[in-house]
Amino acid sequence: MLCSLANAQDLYDLGEGVHGLLISLHHPEQAEAARAELAGKLGAGLEITTWMEENSAILEALIVEKNVMFYLLFFITIVAAFGITSALITFVVQKTREIGTLKALGASSGQVLWLFLSQSLVVGVVGVMAGFGLGLLAVTYRNHFLRFMRGVTGFELFPARIYQFNELPGLIVPGDIGIICGGSLLICLLAGLAPAWNASRLAPVDALRHE
Amino acid sequence: MSEAAAPTPVSPRPSPLLLSARGLCKAYRLDHRIVDVLRHVDLTLAKGELVALRGASGAGKSTLLHLLGGLDVPTAGQIWFADQNLATLGPRELARFRNRKIGFIFQAYHLLPELDALENVCLPARLARVPAAEAERRGRDLLLRVGLGHRLEHRPGELSGGEQQRVAIARALVNAPEIILADEPTGNLDSHTGEQIIALLCALHDESRVTLLIATHDAKVAARAPRVVELVDGQIAAAPAS
Question: ipTM of this model?
Answer without folding.
Answer: 0.88
